[in-house]
Specification:
about 60 residues, two-stranded antiparallel sheet
Length: about 60
């Protein structure tokens, strides 16, 4: 699994959460900031949640 990047909103650490919603048989996964609660959205797979969290709009293409 890839390492989680810091929060794109506030720079704090992020954590991976797995949970089973009521009346569902599938696990739901999200990455959430420990400070501001920004998140990656809900995903069915850990690798997809991490990929969504680590994606940055500006990776290598932004003019500084």
């Amino acid at each position: 699994m890839n390492e989680l990047k810091s929060c794109p909103f506030c720079g704090a650490e992020a954590e991976l959460y797995k949970y089973y919603p009521a009346f569902e048989r599938r696990v739901r996964v999200t990455v959430r900031c420990t400070a501001c609660r920004g998140n990656s959205g809900e995903w069915g797979r850990t690798d997809k949640a991490v990929e969504a969290w680590n994606r940055r709009a500006c990776e290598g293409r932004c003019i500084q």
